[in-house]
Design a protein that fits this description.
By secondary structure, the chain is of the alpha/beta class. It has an eight-stranded mixed beta sheet with strand order 2-3-6-7-8-9-10-14, with helices on one face. Bound molecules: iron/sulfur cluster (SF4). Iron/sulfur cluster (SF4) binds next to loops. The site of iron/sulfur cluster (SF4) has 10 residues, from loops. This is Radical SAM domain-containing protein.
């Protein structure tokens, strides 16, 4: 679906890299190429941040390569750097992709490891860089349904699921390890047996052998987005799956509501069995499901190297 938005290049005043604060990302530094994101996922928590631009505007940090030239030097070689904790570096805009490419090239050439979660598609012209440094790159493709109307409803600015999986095949062909993330599973829409079956078959056909799963978490701002941007009957149906009146703190400082534990456990077990039949390892995200006994941290044993943590990257 086409959503109109404009890109405004700005200079980032604070450091490009910041130490991640949440769950298994705590071991890494994080970077965002833009403030705001043109994919406009209905469930996006970053859209509720105080610094998020209004809908229709995305700010591009045009000076990121300049900042990284200095900051990357201060980190021990092999530092894991996570892209996209609050945005998307593969939004389909030439200027965003150019800054993404230059930023990644600086980090990889300095010997760091990059890890990105994306709903976008990595362009073909990243091939030489990615093939050369494939041992230093880990990719996770976020996809929860292959139905076009699902994407149009919940992720209206993002490429449809089929395109994301085509992008995953390209990365695998370049020698990059690729996982899939099925998150957020939305009750009645993407957690159904049929949807998961079709998706897992397509994931298997791509050559992906590991997935991470988690249900939708509600935050106050996400509830507003669901009410404002979905048809009323659909918003009501989804919100009805979060019956607990109180708010919980799950992993981070943020208050949220979850689908009842009994339902999460039942569906996660079913997906694990479906994956097992196809030879796909299914990991339940522990950061978002600490109350599920069989959940696991997905980054801690993924091959990201250990490194000596600096208190903060220091600008020269
Ligand atoms: S792709 Fe990520 S950052 Fe962009 S709107 Fe969707 S959830 Fe938010």
């Amino acid at each position: 679906m086409c959503i109109s938005w404009r890109l405004i290049p700005i200079d980032k005043r604070s450091p490009a890299l910041h130490q991640a604060e949440f769950g298994c990302l705590k071991r890494a530094y994080a970077i965002n190429v833009t403030r705001g994101c043109s994919f406009y996922c209905i469930y996006c928590y970053a859209r509720g941040y105080a610094i998020a631009p209004s809908k229709g505007t995305v700010y591009l940090y045009q000076n990121l390569p300049l900042l990284l030239q200095k900051e990357a030097r201060r980190l021990p070689m092999g530092t894991p750097i996570i892209f996209n904790t609050a945005s998307e570096c593969f939004q389909n805009h030439p200027h965003i992709l150019e800054i993404t490419y230059r930023s990644m090239a600086i980090l990889l050439r300095r010997g760091h490891h990059i890890n990105f979660l994306t709903k976008g598609v990595v362009p073909k012209w990243f091939k030489d860089l990615f093939c050369r440094y494939h041992h230093h790159i880990q990719a996770t493709i976020d996809v929860v349904s292959l139905k076009e109307n699902y994407c149009n409803l919940f992720e209206p600015g993002a490429p449809i699921g089929k395109k994301r999986l085509e992008g995953a095949i390209r990365l695998l062909n370049w020698g990059i390890p690729v996982k899939a993330r099925l998150d957020p599973l939305i009750p009645f829409f993407s957690d159904t047996q049929e949807n998961i079956e079709n998706l897992l078959l397509a994931i298997k056909d791509c050559g992906i052998r590991k997935i991470i799963i988690s249900y939708l978490e509600l935050r106050p701002r996400i509830i507003e987005q669901l009410r404002q941007e979905l048809p009323a009957s659909i918003a009501k149906l989804i919100l009805g799956c979060f019956p607990k009146p109180s708010w919980d703190r799950v992993g981070s400082k943020t208050l949220c509501k979850q689908v009842p534990l009994s339902i999460r456990k039942k569906v996660y077990q079913r997906i694990r069995q479906q994956g097992e039949k196809l030879g796909i390892k299914v990991v339940v995200c522990r950061c978002k499901n600490p109350d599920v006994s069989f959940s696991q941290y997905c980054l801690s044993k993924s091959g990201l190297p250990k490194y000596k943590r600096l208190s903060q990257p220091v600008l020269l």
